[in-house]
C-alpha cells in the first residue's frame, strides 16, 4: 500500500518536470544592459517577463537578452541588495536600466531549511548567531559558545573534559527516552558525529530553527529543533589571508565545598567509633578504648608523627606534628593551557570562489590524564561552470586526539577519587613509590593510575558534500547534493598489571576501532516566480540517507612487560567482538511559499519519511506545517507612528517527528555472549514491538517583532509543543522476564515564552553601546502515561508532572535529643494508600507541628520540585569606543534544582567509614552540639540518614559571567603602513565568575538534575590576536 | 541555440537521474534491516544448535554474581550466626545484610529478584518453544526441556525461600510471582500462594527427573540433581518421607569425597558433586565470587568465623583446620580457608549440590520420622569423614535432632544454607561470640521479619497488580 503511494508521488513529480519545457509562443526579442548607480555593469541580475515564468540573467557585462511573448508589457529586474525594478517595455527592443541599492532595509539573508530566506519574509521562529559570538571563544566545540545567545536554546556542559559534548536542548525536553538532541546540519548535510570536530573558526553563522514552520522540512528528525551550521565561503575580489592565535590558562571553575584535612578526619573517625561503641552498650571508658584502638584501622593510616596522637576525648594533642595531609584535589587538578592557531585563506573571481582554512586547537586539561588536541582543514570551493551550471564542494577534515579518564562512580575516575580518599592517605610511600592502600578505594591511587594507565582516543573525521546547481530557467533551479560524513575512531584502554582495574588479571588492554559512515543524497527542484506585487515559490525534493557503524574490539590480559599497552604484549587473549549496525531513510519533501506585496507572507510544507528503525506496522510518517507572517508596519491602515519602526506578527503550526532510538528497537532479539562452561550461549535481550513508531510532535508558535525608536528591537514568542506517542522503556514486572519494553506510551507538553531585547544606548561616530537581554521560560508537563506512576531513580513520572520531577522522602532535620535523622511522615501523601500514622511517628521536636519519624521506611515519598529551570537566558552588553571594543556576556538560570549525589558521598554519616568527608560533617550532632542539620556520626551507622531524601536537594540557580572580551583594532592608517589589512588583539575571560548557592563545583550539572562525578567545568583567561593580510 | 541544446541535454540527464533515484529508493528491502550482533526469537528456536545455546545462556544467568554465583550463597550465611562480614576492611559489601537492616530499594534485595526472574523467563522460553524445533530428536528435546525445568525450579525455590515467610509458618502465605507461560505485559502478576509456587516447582522437578538421563558432566542438571532439589523442596514442606527418599536417590552410588579433597578449596568438582556452576578461567566473576570474599588474601577477603562456632568443632575434627588465626591479617577474628582460587582470582567452580547435604537431609528426615538408627547411621557417615575416630551417636528424639542440625552447620557452612535452615524450622536466631551486631529473637518475636527479604521496591513500582500494601511485614 505504501509502496504504491510512493510510486504515485514519484510519478507526479516526474510529470511536473515534464511540463517544464513546453511553453513556447510568438515572441519578440528584447535586450539591454543593467548597470548600478556608479555605471558599473551588474552580472547575475534576474530579468523576468512580468506575468510569465520566462526570464534570463545578465552576463559579466550586464547584458541580457530574452524573448518576450506578444502581449506582455513589462520586465522585472531583481538582484540581491538592490531594489527590484519593474520597467515597461513600451515597444522598445533595447531596454537598459539602472538599479538602486536597497537602503531601506538591507535584507539580511538567513540560511534556513533547504534554502535561504530574508528575515523579513521568514514565517518561522529562527535565530541567527553571528560568527562574532563564536570566533574568539576558547572552547573546543562551537555549541558551548551558544549558551545564552538564543532564547529557547539551552546548552548545558556537564563535564569539563576537553572535547566533551554539551547537552543542547531547544524549547524544553521533547522526549522521555528517545534522544532530545536537535538535528545538526552542516552546509546542508546532516551530521552524525561529534560537534567537537568542527573548528569554530570556520563557522560563518549558525541558525537555530525552533518551531514547526522552520524545521518541519526535516520531518522525522526535526522534533527537537534543528541547528544549521554554515561555514565560510570565499568572496570574489582580492584574496584575503588571515592568521589568528589564542593562548589561555584554564582552571577548575570553582572551589566547591571544602573537604576535611587529616586531623579533622582522624578526629571524626574517632568520634564515629566512640559513638558506635556507646550505641553497642559499652561504657564511656570502654568506648574510648575501643575508639583509640580502632581509629587507625578505619582511617587507614596514622598521619601524625606519634603512636597515640589523640587524647582520651578524641581530640588531637596540641603540638602534634601532622606528617601526611594530602589535598587530593590539588593532586589531580592542575592549570591547563589552551592554544589555538588558525590560518584562513579566502578569495575568488566571478566564477570561482575558494575558502581554505587550517586550524590547530590544544587544551592540556585541568585534570590529570585529561587533554585534547585537534587539527582541522577546511576547503570550500564553488565554481560557475557556465551560465546555468554551478558546482561546488564543501569539505572538512579533522584529526583529534584526546586522553579522557573514565567518569562515573568507578575507582578509576580521578574526580571521584579526589573526593573520597581521605587526607591521611599519602600519595607516595616512604620509598617514593605510589601508595595504594587507601580505605575508600583500595588499590586505586589517582596520581599513580594517571601515570600508569591509559585512556587514549583518536578520531579522524571527514565531512564532504558536493553539489551541482542547475539554472534550468530563471524560474526553475535544481540542486543535487551528495555527501558523506565519516569518522574513524580508535580507542585504547590500558590497565596496568599491578594496581587498579588490571590488578586481578595482571594487566588488561582493550583496543577498539570503529567506523561510522553516513551518506546522503538529495535532489531539490525549486520554481520561483515574482511579480512586482508578489512572490511565489515551490520546492520539491527527494532525499535518501543511511548510516553504517561498525565496531571491532579486542582485549588481552596478562602482561609481563610493564608500560607497553599494545595488545601484542598480552599473553592471554579475551573474547574479541565485532558488529555492524545500520539504518536507512527515504524521504520526499515539498514546500510552497507565497508573499504578497511584501506585507503578507505564507508558507506550507509537507514531508514523508520512511525509516528502517520502526516496526513493520509503522514504517512511514507524514509531517506538515503552515506558517504565516504579517508585516503590520507596512499596512496602509497602520498609522505612521515615528516611534514604531517595524511590527511583524508571525504564527505557525506544524508536525515533526523524533526517530532517535536504536536501529533495531522494534525487534525481539537474543544476544550472544552468555557463555557457560566453555560453551557459547544466547540470552533474550529485547522484547518485540511491531507497532513501534515515531514520536509525534505538534507545535504551535506565535511571534511578534517590534522595533521602537530605531533603537530598541524586541521580539516575543509564545510556543506550545505537544509530543505524542513518546518512546519509553516502560518498566515491567520481573514476572515478564525482561525489565522493560520500548513502547510509544506517553504524551508530553512543552510550553513557554521567549523574549529578546536589544537596545542601542549610544550610537554615534565615537561611541557605540548596546544592551541585549533574552529570557526563556519552559514548562514541561507529562500529559499521558500508560501507567499511573513510574518511579525512576530520584524522579517520578506521572501525568501532570514535569519529566524531571524529584520524588523522595522529605528531610525533617536532626533530632536534638539523640542526633538521629528525621523525615516527615507525610502520611497523607499517596506513596502508601492508608493514611494512618506509623508507630514510629512522633511530634517534630524542632517545632514544625508536623509528624516525623526516625525510621526511613515509615516516611512516605513526596514530590519535591523540578530539575529544569523556570527561567533562563542571557544578558549582553557591548561598548565600542574608537578602536576599542568591550563585550560582557552573562548567563542566568533560575529555579532548577539538583540532587547532589557527589555531596552525599562526602556526608555519609559513617556508613562508608574510610571515605573522606566534607568539612560540613564536622558539625555532626553530639550531646554538646544538639541543634545542627548533620546527624550523629557513627561508624557502620544504621540510621540510614544518608539515604535518598530532600536533605541533598539543592537549588541549582546561578548567574555566571560567561564571557568578558576587550579587543583593540589597530587603526587603518597604521595597518596600511605595515601593509596589513587589519590587526586586532584581545583579552578574554570565560566562565570567570559564578554566583550560586549550589555546594558542588558547578551548578550546571546534568540536565536531569543529578551529579555524576564528572570533571568540573573550567574558567579560562586568554589573550589572542588576528592579522589580516 | 547551442547553449539551449546543452541545457536540454543536461535537463534530460537530470530527469533520468531523478527517476533512477526515486525508483531505487523504493526497493523493498532498503528499509528492512537486521542487526549483526543479535538474532530474532524465531531464529533461536529454528534449530537445535541455537536452542541449545539458549540453554547455555540460561545456565550463564544462573551463574551471575547477583544470583547463584555470589549473592545467594554468601547472603544466606551472613544472615546466620556462624560466620560474619568483618567490621572493618570490608569495602562496604553486604554490611546492611549482616546488620539485618535492609530496605526494599537496596541492590541486595533488587538484584537477586531480577536475576532469578530473568532465569525463569529464559527457562520458560525453552520449555514452551522446544516442541517447535524442527531438527531436534525426542532425546534432545527431552534433555532441553528437562534441564530448563530444573533451572526454573531451582530459581523459583531460591526466590520463594528468600522473599516469602517459611512454609512451616503458613503454607498459603503470599509468596513470589508465578508465571510460566504468559506474555501479557500489561496485567502484572500477583503474589501467588506459597503452596501454589511449591506445587509448580514440584511438578517441574518430577517431570525433569523422569525425562532427564544421568549426565557425567556435573556442570549441567540431570535426573540426579532433579531428585536432589526435590529432596530440598520436600524438606522445606516438612514431607519427611518423600524428602528422605529423594535424597537417597540423589546420593545413590556416590562416594563422599575424602578429607584431602575437602582441603583443595571447594573449587573443583569431585566424586560427591551433584551440581556445580562450571566457571572457567576465562569466564568467571573474578572479584565477585565466593573465594574472593572467603579466602584471606587476594580478594575482598572480608568473611570471618564466629569464635563460638569455631569452638564447636572438636580438636579431632579435620574441618577445624578450615579456621585460621593470623595476626598479620586479622588479630581479632578467625579467617576461613574453606574456599580457594585456582591460579587466578575467581577461578573456582561453585559446588551447589553435593552428596553430603543429601545424607544430612536423610538423617534429619529419619530423625523426624522416629527412625533413630537410620538417622544415626546417616549422621555417622558424614561425621566420620572429617573425624575418623568419632563415636556413632546414640542420641534420640530432640537430642538426636540437635546433633543432626549441628552437623549440618559444621559441614555446610559457607555453602549457602544457614538462613533457610533457621527459617524453615522456625528456630530462634541468636548471635553470640565475637559478632559485632548481635541479635536474639525467636519465631514469636516481631523481629523475625528480618529473616525474610522485602519485595523489591522496583517490582512494586512496575507491577500494576502489586502495591505497597502487598509488601512483607516489617518493611
Structure description:
The complex is a heterodimer of chains A (1029) and B (475). Chain A is mainly β. Chain A is 9% helix and 46% strand. In chain A, strand 27 (577-596) and strand 28 form a beta hairpin. In chain A, helix 4 (262-279) packs across helix 5 (284-299). The radius of gyration of chain A is 33 Å and the shape is elongated. Chain B has 475 residues and is mainly α. Chain B is 48% helix and 7% strand. In chain B, the strands form five sheets. Chain B has a two-stranded antiparallel ribbon with strand order 2-6. A two-stranded antiparallel sheet of chain B has the order 3-4. A two-stranded antiparallel ribbon of chain B has the order 5-9. At the A-B interface, helix 1, helix 5, strand 27, strand 31 and strand 32 of A face helix 1, strand 1, helix 2, helix 3 and helix 7 of B.
Characterize this entry briefly:
The complex is a heterodimer of chains A (1029) and B (475). Chain A contains 10 helices and 52 strands.
Topology diagram in text:
The complex is a heterodimer of chains A (1029) and B (475).
Chain A lengths: L1 H17 L8 E10 L9 E4 L5 E3 L5 E7 L4 E5 L6 E4 L8 E3 L9 E4 L2 E4 L7 E5 H5 L17 E4 L10 E4 L12 E4 L2 E2 L12 E7 L2 H4 L10 E6 L5 E16 L9 H18 L4 H16 L28 H5 L3 E13 L3 E12 L7 E14 L4 E15 L10 H7 L25 H7 L1 E18 L4 E20 L12 E23 L3 E26 L10 E4 L3 E20 L3 E12 L8 E12 L12 E15 L10 E3 L11 E4 L8 E14 L3 E20 L8 E24 L3 E11 L1 E6 L4 E4 L2 E4 L6 E5 L1 E4 L6 E4 L17 E2 L7 E3 L7 E6 L4 E11 L2 E11 L2 E3 L1 H5 L47 E3 L2 E12 L2 H6 L4 E15 L21 E11 L1
Parallel strand pairs in A: 1-7, 13-16
Antiparallel strand pairs in A: 1-4, 2-3, 2-5, 5-6, 8-9, 10-15, 11-12, 13-14, 15-16, 17-18, 17-52, 18-19, 19-20, 20-21, 21-22, 22-23, 23-24, 24-25, 25-26, 25-27, 27-28, 28-29, 29-30, 30-33, 31-32, 33-34, 34-35, 35-36, 35-37, 36-46, 38-39, 40-45, 41-42, 42-44, 43-44, 46-47, 47-50, 48-49, 50-51, 51-52
Helix pairs in contact in A: 4-5
Chain B lengths: L1 H24 L12 E3 H4 L3 H15 L2 H5 L1 H8 L4 E3 L9 H4 L8 H23 L8 H26 L10 E4 L13 E3 H18 L11 H15 L2 H12 L7 H4 L10 E5 L12 H5 L8 E3 L1 H4 L12 E2 L10 E2 L13 E5 H15 L2 H15 L10 H16 L5 H7 L4 E2 L9 E2 L15 H6 L13
Antiparallel strand pairs in B: 2-6, 3-4, 5-9, 7-8, 10-11
Helix pairs in contact in B: 3-7, 3-8, 7-8, 8-9, 8-10, 9-10, 10-11, 11-15, 15-16, 15-17, 16-17
Amino acid at each position: 500500500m505504501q509502496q504504491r503511494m510512493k510510486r504515485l508521488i514519484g510519478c507526479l513529480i516526474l510529470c511536473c518536470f515534464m511540463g517544464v519545457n513546453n511553453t513556447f509562443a510568438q515572441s519578440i526579442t528584447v535586450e539591454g544592459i543593467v548597470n548600478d548607480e556608479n555605471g558599473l555593469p551588474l552580472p547575475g541580475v534576474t530579468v523576468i517577463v512580468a506575468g510569465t515564468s520566462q526570464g534570463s540573467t545578465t552576463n559579466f557585462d550586464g547584458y541580457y537578452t530574452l524573448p518576450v511573448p506578444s502581449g506582455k508589457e513589462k520586465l522585472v529586474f531583481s538582484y540581491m541588495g538592490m531594489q527590484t525594478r519593474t520597467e515597461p517595455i513600451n515597444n522598445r527592443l533595447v531596454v537598459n536600466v539602472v538599479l538602486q541599492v536597497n537602503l531601506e532595509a538591507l535584507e539580511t539573508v538567513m540560511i534556513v531549511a533547504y534554502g535561504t530566506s530574508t528575515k523579513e519574509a521568514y514565517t518561522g521562529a529562527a535565530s541567527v548567531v553571528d560568527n562574532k559570538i563564536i570566533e574568539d571563544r576558547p572552547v573546543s566545540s562551537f555549541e558551548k559558545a551558544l549558551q545564552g545567545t538564543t532564547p529557547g536554546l539551552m546548552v548545558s556542559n556537564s563535564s569539563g573534559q576537553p572535547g566533551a559534548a554539551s547537552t543542547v536542548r531547544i524549547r524544553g525536553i521533547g522526549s522521555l527516552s528517545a534522544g532530545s538532541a536537535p538535528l545538526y546540519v552542516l552546509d546542508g548535510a546532516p551530521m552524525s558525529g561529534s560537534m567537537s570536530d568542527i573548528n569554530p573558526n570556520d563557522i560563518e553563522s549558525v541558525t537555530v530553527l525552533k518551531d514547526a514552520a522552520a524545521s518541519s522540512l526535516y520531518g522525522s528528525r526535526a522534533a527537537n529543533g534543528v541547528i544549521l551550521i554554515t561555514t565560510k565561503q570565499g568572496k570574489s575580489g582580492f584574496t584575503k589571508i588571515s592568521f589568528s592565535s589564542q593562548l589561555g590558562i584554564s582552571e577548575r571553575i570553582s572551589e566547591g565545598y571544602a573537604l576535611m584535612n587529616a586531623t579533622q578526619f582522624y578526629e571524626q573517625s574517632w568520634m564515629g567509633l566512640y559513638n558506635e561503641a556507646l550505641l553497642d552498650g559499652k561504657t564511656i571508658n570502654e568506648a574510648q578504648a575501643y575508639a583509640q584502638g580502632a581509629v587507625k584501622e578505619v582511617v587507614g593510616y596514622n598521619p601524625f608523627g606519634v603512636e597515640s596522637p589523640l587524647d582520651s576525648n578524641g581530640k588531637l594533642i596540641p603540638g602534634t606534628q601532622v606528617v601526611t595531609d594530602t589535598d587530593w584535589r590539588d593532586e589531580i587538578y592542575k592549570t591547563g593551557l589552551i592554544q589555538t592557531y588558525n590560518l584562513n585563506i579566502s578569495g575568488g573571481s566571478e566564477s570561482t570562489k575558494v575558502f581554505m582554512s587550517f586550524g590547530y586547537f590544544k587544551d592540556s586539561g585541568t585534570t590529570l590524564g585529561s587533554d585534547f588536541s585537534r587539527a582541522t582543514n577546511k576547503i570550500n570551493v564553488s565554481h560557475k561552470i557556465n551560465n546555468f551550471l554551478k558546482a561546488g564542494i564543501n569539505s572538512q577534515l579533522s584529526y583529534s586526539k584526546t586522553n579522557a579518564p573514565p567518569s562515573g562512580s568507578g575507582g578509576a575516575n580521578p574526580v571521584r577519587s579526589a573526593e573520597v580518599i581521605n587526607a591521611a592517605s599519602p600519595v607516595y610511600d616512604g620509598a617514593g613509590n605510589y601508595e595504594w592502600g587507601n580505605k575508600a578505594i583500595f588499590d586505586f591511587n589517582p596520581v599513580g593510575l594517571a601515570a600508569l594507565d591509559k585512556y587514549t582516543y583518536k578520531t579522524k573525521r571527514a565531512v564532504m558534500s558536493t553539489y551541482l546547481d542547475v539554472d534550468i530557467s530563471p524560474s526553475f533551479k535544481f540542486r543535487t547534493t551528495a555527501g558523506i560524513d565519516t569518522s574513524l575512531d580508535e580507542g585504547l584502554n590500558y590497565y596496568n598489571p599491578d594496581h587498579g582495574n588490571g590488578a586481578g588479571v595482571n594487566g588488561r588492554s582493550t583496543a577498539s576501532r570503529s567506523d561510522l559512515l553516513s551518506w546522503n543524497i538529495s535532489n531539490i527542484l525549486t520554481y520561483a516566480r515574482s511579480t512586482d506585487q508578489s512572490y511565489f515559490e515551490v520546492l520539491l525534493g527527494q532525499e535518501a540517507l543511511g548510516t553504517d557503524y561498525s565496531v571491532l574490539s579486542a582485549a588481552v590480559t596478562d602482561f609481563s612487560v610493564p608500560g607497553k599497552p599494545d595488545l601484542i604484549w598480552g599473553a592471554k587473549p579475551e573474547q574479541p567482538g565485532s558488529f555492524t549496525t545500520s539504518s536507512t531513510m527515504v524521504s520526499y519533501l515539498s514546500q510552497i511559499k507565497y508573499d504578497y506585496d511584501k506585507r503578507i507572507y505564507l508558507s506550507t510544507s509537507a514531508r514523508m519519511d520512511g525509516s528502517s528503525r520502526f516496526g513493520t506496522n509503522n514504517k512511514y510518517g507524514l509531517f506538515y506545517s503552515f506558517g504565516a507572517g504579517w508585516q503590520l508596519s507596512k499596512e496602509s491602515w497602520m498609522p505612521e507612528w515615528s516611534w514604531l519602526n517595524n511590527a511583524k506578527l508571525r504564527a505557525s503550526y506544524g508536525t515533526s517527528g523524533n526517530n532517535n532510538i536504536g536501529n533495531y528497537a522494534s525487534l525481539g532479539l537474543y544476544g550472544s555472549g552468555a557463555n557457560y562452561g566453555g560453551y557459547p550461549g544466547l540470552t533474550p535481550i529485547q522484547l518485540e514491538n511491531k507497532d513501534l513508531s515515531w514520536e509525534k510532535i505538534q507545535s504551535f508558535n506565535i511571534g511578534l517583532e517590534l522595533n521602537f525608536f530605531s533603537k530598541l528591537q524586541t521580539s516575543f514568542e509564545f510556543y506550545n509543543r505537544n509530543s505524542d506517542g513518546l518512546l519509553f522503556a516502560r518498566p515491567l514486572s520481573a514476572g515478564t522476564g525482561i525489565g522493560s519494553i520500548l513502547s510509544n506510551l506517553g504524551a508530553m507538553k512543552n510550553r513557554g515564552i521567549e523574549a529578546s531585547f536589544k537596545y542601542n544606548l549610544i550610537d554615534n561616530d565615537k561611541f557605540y553601546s548596546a544592551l541585549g537581554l533574552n529570557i526563556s521560560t519552559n514548562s514541561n508537563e507529562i500529559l499521558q502515561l500508560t501507567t499511573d506512576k513510574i518511579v525512576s531513580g530520584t524522579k517520578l513520572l506521572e501525568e501532570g508532572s514535569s519529566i524531571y520531577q524529584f520524588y523522595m522522602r522529605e528531610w525533617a532535620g536532626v533530632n536534638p535529643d539523640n542526633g538521629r535523622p528525621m523525615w516527615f511522615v507525610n502520611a497523607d501523601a499517596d506513596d502508601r494508600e492508608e493514611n494512618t500514622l506509623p508507630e514510629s511517628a512522633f511530634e517534630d521536636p524542632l517545632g514544625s507541628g508536623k509528624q516525623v519519624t526516625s525510621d526511613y521506611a515509615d516516611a512516605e515519598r513526596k514530590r519535591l520540585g523540578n530539575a529544569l529551570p523556570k527561567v533562563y537566558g542571557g544578558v549582553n552588553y557591548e561598548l565600542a569606543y574608537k578602536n576599542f571594543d568591550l563585550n560582557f556576556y552573562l548567563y542566568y538560570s533560575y529555579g532548577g534544582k539538583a540532587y547532589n549525589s557527589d555531596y552525599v558521598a562526602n556526608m555519609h554519616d559513617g556508613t562508608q567509614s574510610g571515605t573522606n568527608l566534607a568539612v560540613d560533617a564536622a558539625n555532626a550532632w553530639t550531646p554538646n552540639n544538639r541543634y545542627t542539620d548533620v546527624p550523629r556520626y557513627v561508624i557502620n551507622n544504621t540510621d540510614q540518614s544518608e539515604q535518598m531524601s530532600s536533605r541533598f536537594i539543592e537549588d541549582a540557580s546561578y548567574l555566571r559571567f560567561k564571557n568578558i572580551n576587550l579587543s583593540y583594532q589597530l587603526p587603518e592608517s597604521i595597518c596600511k603602513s605595515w601593509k596589513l589589512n587589519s590587526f586586532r588583539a584581545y583579552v578574554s575571560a570565560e566562565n570567570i565568575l559564578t554566583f550560586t548557592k549550589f555546594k558542588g563545583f558547578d551548578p550546571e550539572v546534568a540536565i536531569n538534575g543529578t551529579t555524576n562525578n564528572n570533571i568540573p567545568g573550567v574558567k579560562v583567561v586568554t589573550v589572542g590576536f588576528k592579522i589580516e593580510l | 541555440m547551442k547553449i539551449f541544446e546543452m541545457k536540454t541535454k543536461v535537463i534530460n540527464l537530470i530527469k533520468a537521474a531523478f527517476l533512477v533515484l526515486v525508483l531505487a529508493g523504493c526497493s523493498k528491502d532498503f528499509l528492512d534491516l537486521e542487526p549483526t550482533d543479535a538474532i530474532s526469537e524465531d531464529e533461536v528456536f529454528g534449530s537445535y544448535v541455537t536452542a541449545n545455546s539458549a540453554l547455555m545462556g540460561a545456565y550463564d544467568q544462573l551463574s551471575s554474581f547477583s544470583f547463584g554465583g555470589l549473592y545467594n550463597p554468601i547472603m544466606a550465611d551472613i544472615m546466620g550466626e556462624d560466620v560474619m562480614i568483618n567490621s572493618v576492611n570490608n569495602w562496604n559489601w553486604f554490611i546492611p545484610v549482616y546488620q539485618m537492616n535492609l530496605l526494599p530499594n537496596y541492590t541486595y534485595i533488587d538484584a537477586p529478584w531480577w536475576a532469578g526472574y530473568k532465569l525463569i523467563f529464559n527457562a520458560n522460553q525453552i520449555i514452551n518453544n522446544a516442541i517447535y524445533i524442527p531438527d531436534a530428536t525426542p532425546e534432545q528435546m527431552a534433555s532441553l526441556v528437562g534441564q530448563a525445568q530444573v533451572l526454573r525450579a531451582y530459581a523459583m525455590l531460591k526466590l520463594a525461600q528468600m522473599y516469602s515467610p517459611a512454609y512451616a509458618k503458613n503454607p498459603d502465605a503470599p509468596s513470589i510471582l508465578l508465571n510460566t507461560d504468559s506474555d501479557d505485559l500489561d496485567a502484572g502478576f500477583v503474589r501467588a500462594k506459597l503452596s501454589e509456587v511449591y506445587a509448580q516447582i514440584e511438578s517441574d522437578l518430577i517431570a525433569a527427573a523422569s525425562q532427564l538421563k544421568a549426565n557425567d558432566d556435573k556442570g549441567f542438571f540431570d535426573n540426579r540433581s532433579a531428585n536432589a532439589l526435590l529432596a530440598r523442596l520436600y524438606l522445606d514442606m516438612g514431607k519427611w518421607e518423600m524428602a528422605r527418599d529423594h535424597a537417597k536417590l540423589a546420593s545413590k552410588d556416590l562416594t563422599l569425597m575424602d578429607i584431602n579433597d575437602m582441603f583443595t578449596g571447594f573449587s573443583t568438582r569431585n566424586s560427591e558433586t551433584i551440581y556445580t556452576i562450571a566457571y572457567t578461567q576465562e569466564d568467571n566473576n573474578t572479584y565477585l565470587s565466593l573465594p574472593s570474599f572467603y579466602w584471606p588474601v587476594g580478594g575482598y577477603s572480608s568473611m570471618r568465623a564466629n569464635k563460638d562456632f569455631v569452638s564447636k568443632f572438636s580438636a579431632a575434627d579435620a574441618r577445624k583446620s578450615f579456621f585460621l588465626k593470623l595476626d598479620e591479617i586479622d588479630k581479632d577474628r578467625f579467617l576461613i580457608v574453606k574456599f580457594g582460587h585456582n591460579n587466578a582470582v575467581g577461578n573456582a567452580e561453585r559446588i551447589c549440590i553435593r552428596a553430603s547435604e543429601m545424607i544430612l537431609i536423610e538423617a534429619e528426615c529419619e530423625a523426624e520420622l522416629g527412625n533413630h538408627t537410620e538417622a544415626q547411621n546417616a549422621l555417622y557417615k558424614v561425621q566420620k569423614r572429617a573425624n575418623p575416630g568419632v563415636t556413632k551417636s546414640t542420641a534420640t528424639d530432640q537430642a538426636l535432632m540437635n546433633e543432626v542440625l549441628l552437623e549440618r552447620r559444621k559441614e555446610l557452612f559457607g555453602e549457602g544454607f544457614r538462613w533457610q535452615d533457621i527459617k524453615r524450622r522456625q528456630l530462634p536466631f541468636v548471635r553470640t561470640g565475637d559478632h559485632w551486631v548481635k541479635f536474639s529473637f525467636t519465631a514469636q518475636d516481631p523481629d523475625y521479619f528480618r529473616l525474610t527479604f522485602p519485595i523489591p521496591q522496583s517490582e512494586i513500582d512496575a507491577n500494576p497488580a502489586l502495591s505497597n500494601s502487598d509488601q512483607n511485614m516489617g518493611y
